[in-house]
Amino acid sequence: MSSTFFITLTKKKSEDYSIPSRKEGNIVMMTKKWRRRWEDVGEKLTFIFAPPVVLLIKFIPLSGIYLLGRAFARVGTLFPGRRKKIALANLRLVFGKRKGEEEIDAIYKQCLTRTITSFLEAMKFCVLPPPVAKGRIEIVGKEILDATLKKGKGIIIAGLHLGNFPLLAAKLALEGYPIAVIIKKPRNRYIARLYTRMTDAVGVGFINGGERKEAAQQSLRQLRGGGIVYIVIDQNPPYPDIMVDFFGYAVPSFKGPVVLAMRTGAAILPGFIVYSNGWRQKLFIEKPFTLKSTGDQERDVAHNLARLMKLTEGYIEQYPEQWWWWHRRWKRHIDYKHL
């Protein structure tokens, strides 16, 4: 194994964000104090403007949701926001040598439409009659899921911010599978309450990834009870973790799926949901991911995590317009602060 394939590295705990308060170069950087103030303002505005939107989504038909999402996306393309700069920088890093600027811009616009519409669709999904909701998503590989679940050791579904990824857990819960999702509880209280109502409506268990010790204990209980834990693995962890190769660049990645599997004997099933045939969706369950073991636990975790991340690249390559390019995934390779 090449030493460049994975390495262990400590991640910096604090970062800077653009907008007021201290200067760095030609831009002004936001301190943590100012960032919290802006978040407080945003939370107050959410309590004012979000309820009417949620009410509207409840009563308009699904076709109206998709029209509304496209309309919002068209407006969004007119503004050169920071997330647009991040997304385009990520796309150029990954595809710049293989795709032209027009194609990259087209992927960005499709991604924006999918992201906005997916958020609206997820809220609508939770108030649809269960037979209608279940009929919107086809499971490919259900026999793999069922056979693995019968072994009684639990399942870890390792997913991506791909397609309408929250609906993966919602679909399986509606089908009767005992599933809990690990996600960090939003700081925005309205969004947190809305998310809780949505997961409760479809029967998805919630594990707060922001509380590491408690999240680990809840995950172990879920797996030892023969249940399913759903983890999205393609974001930067907020604590020191393992660096792996992702599209040719070393990035920090969550080691939780591999560590949990090694500790409990639970199977890792890569699982991804994508749009197919318009706004219909397919949920792909891959064969169990086989862990390689040499007896060196630290090296084994890093090696298996690198293999798992390499598998996810294939889905992003196939559906680039459906992956979330908004995250600052390549912080050590792109100067996001100066975009």
Write a concise synopsis of the structure shown.
With 339 residues, this protein is of the alpha/beta class. The chain is built from eleven helices and 13 strands. A hairpin with a 2-residue loop joins β10 and β11.
Quick tags:
339 residues; alpha/beta; Glycerol-3-phosphate (1)-acyltransferase; 2 domains; 7-stranded mixed β-sheet; 3-stranded antiparallel β-sheet; 13 strands; globular
Structure description:
This protein folds into two domains: 9-126 and 328-338, no CATH class; 130-321, Glycerol-3-phosphate (1)-acyltransferase (3-Layer(aba) Sandwich), CATH 3.40.1130. 48% of the residues lie in helices and 18% in strands. It is built from eleven helices and 13 strands. It has helices at 32-59, 62-76, 82-95, 101-125, 130-135, 142-149, 166-174, 189-202, 212-224, 256-264, 297-318, and strands spanning 6-9, 17-18, 21-24, 27-30, 137-140, 155-159, 179-183, 205-208, 228-232, 241-246, 249-253, 267-275, 281-285. The strands form three sheets. The chain has a seven-stranded mixed sheet, with helices on both faces. A hairpin with a 2-residue loop joins strand 3 and strand 4. It is globular and about 55 Å long. It starts with 5 loop residues before the first strand and ends in a 21-residue tail after the last helix.
How do the helices and strands line up, and which of them pair or pack?
Blueprint (H helix, E strand, L loop, with lengths): L5 E4 L7 E2 L2 E4 L2 E4 L1 H28 L2 H15 L5 H14 L5 H25 L4 H6 L1 E4 L1 H8 L5 E5 L6 H9 L4 E5 L5 H14 L2 E4 L3 H13 L3 E5 L8 E6 L2 E5 L2 H9 L2 E9 L5 E5 L11 H22 L21
Parallel strand pairs: 5-13, 6-9, 6-12, 7-8, 7-9
Antiparallel strand pairs: 1-10, 2-4, 3-4, 10-11, 12-13
